[in-house]
Amino acid sequence: MQLKELEALMHAFVLEKGWYAEDSPKEQSARNLAISLVLEASEVLEHFQWREESLEPQELAGELADVALYLLQLASISGIDLEAAIVRKLRENRHREWPSP
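Given the sequence above, the corresponding structure tokens read:
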């Protein structure tokens, strides 16, 4: 599945839940989505607290999916082509010098 297809599925889900409505208690603003993205990323970290590997790979997969969905939505409502941004960043990083440990 392509990134744009995932984005469309994500928007359809959010619309279905009514979260794009003006009176929604879960306003889908860039600020709120950025906060939610960080909170979900923290839930990913919980899987590795005090251990090197997640003991629950399926639950980790769900948390990673939550992070990806918030990232897709934040990029989309901010007018950012995430696919193009990723390709551009990879090109930039290819020429970047990384310090040795």
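The chain has one domain: 3-94. Try to locate this feature in the token string yourself.
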